[in-house]
Amino acid sequence: MAVGKNKRLTKGGKKGSKKKASDPFLKKEWYDIKAPSVFSQRQCGKTLVSRTQGTKIASEQLKGRVLELNLADLNNDEDQASKKIKLCIEEVQGRNCLTDFHGMTLTRDKLYSLVRKWHTMIEAHVDVKTTDGYVVRLFVIAFTKRRQDQVKTNCYAQSAQIRKIRKKMTEIMTKEAGTVQLRELVKKRSRSPSGSGKKGSKKKASDPFLKKEWYDIKAPSVFSQRQCGKTLVSRTQGTKIASEQLKGRVLELNLADLNQDEDQASKKIKLCIEEVQGRNCLTDFHGMTLTRDKLYSLVRKWHTMIEAHVDVKTTDGYVVRLFVIAFTKRRQDQVKTNCYAQSAQIRKIRKKMTEIMTKEAGTVQLRELVKKLIPESIGKEIEKQTQGIFPLKDVLIRKVKIIKKPKFDITKL
Fold first, then answer.
1. How far from 159 is each of 120, 139, 146, 151, 163, CA to CA, in Å?
2. Residues 218-270: pLDDT tens digits?
């Protein structure tokens, strides 16, 4: 039979016969991984390798292979789950792969959980040679910490401080790693943070309020309500004395609560703790401000707002900074829409304001000044004396700050 050139017939076989696909795992075999003796769990897993075929020897393929394991599995401790250990196969004995320490890293979720805003992250690294000849590169990470009772939001470190910390880090790492063998260095790095190797051994979260106690706040005698609240402080522990932590603490209260008068709710009083007697905190006047809603309610369009401030020393040695605010007033039967004051008039009014504040505050003690601030007698005096320049309304002492205090005298509280 003649065979045409277009007939596609395979030589010696049937049409379309293909080579069968074999399972690749039939040509592979499992080897046990033995961790270094520094870890509690020696038998830590298995690895796969192609069988010896010709010049391709299985044991030679395994040597130098790097394996990554979790430290929690190597030490049977869940507290160490944030660290990953790298092991390198150095020798193959039968079906056992003997490994050596090859590296360590923190897990990504652990690293991400450490980063916080308002803190400075400081990093450093150094190459160190151990006593048994290994050259190790150590990377360290640290974060700045808020001080106890810190009021400031952030805790950023300055560039000079960062350089000093980084230098100290490299010194400590060189000292710790350069004086021991690799085996001892791994022990230091893989030590349990809780100190015990038991599974799930964690420090119990205690209620922070169990370590604190309440103190009563006593307002100065110038206010009608002496017992005005309570404050919280950590109990005395060692050198941290509770009364010393309280001294200098500034408290903010509403004048309506201090004088039991709702008409005075637009003023906030600051009190500073000067002395602690038993469970009572004796306070002194530290400042006064108008509430924000009161200030916003005063501002009007078509009026001029005039402000002034002055530093005055009272007769008992306090240096007080007074801020005053006033607004121009429409005259009776005025047709004009606005009531703007001219620049010359504003300068005259401001000069008059500072003169009256200096006179009113500089001739009395702080105690008497506080009594004048409550009924706004200074504001009324300014309004009265500036009528000839330009009529004013809503003349108020906006803010009072204590700049300097004399030596503390408990009898004045």
1. 10, 20, 17, 22, 6
2. 999 999 999 999 999 999 988 889 999 999 999 999 999 999 989 999 999 99
